[in-house]
Amino acid sequence: MEAEIKDVNLPNGQLLTPFQRKLLLKNLTEDLPGLYRQRIQIMLLADEGKSQTNICRTLGCCPATARHWIHIARSGMAHQWQTAPIGRPKAVNEEYLERLKTLVNDSPRNYGYAFQRWTANWLSKHLAKEFGFQLSDCHIKRLLKTMGLSTKSKPVITPETPSQISTNSQISIGNLSSESLLNESERLPIHFLKIKTNS
Length: 199
What we know:
Blueprint: H1 18-28, H2 34-47, H3 52-59, H4 63-74, H5 94-104, H6 120-131, H7 137-146
């Protein structure tokens, strides 16, 4: 939705300097992506005294977007309207994912840490040193999950350990053959010592 912006030189605009207003109006005449146009329109309408609710209704934008660009205009930074890229930057690329995979399959001790197992928090901190940006623990966990990985240690199942643990609380012994039992000649005698006590 296109808002009608008054092309007047307001010496006493509410948020913008005359230079900023002129610059924004000039940029509005150029062929810009819709979201860039919206940013400019939000700041110009706010400068005319329009409320956040009115701006959202006029432009069809969400309150958070309107609030952000009104704040930018209010803080005197309106001339930098194009410095923030549209949308979130694509921080996580294939290189990042490969490095995450390598780290989680390797011991943290190989990287100078004292602990034996990675946590999402430490993976995030370590990768921040290497790539220059930090992801939240939740985001790291999501990435690991999509790759079928986890920071939790897997239970070690050995041939001697049954794969299914009985749910009742009784102890059961199974798989004992007569060959595995000690015969009388293999038993070791136990001798108890008597300790004298002075009474």
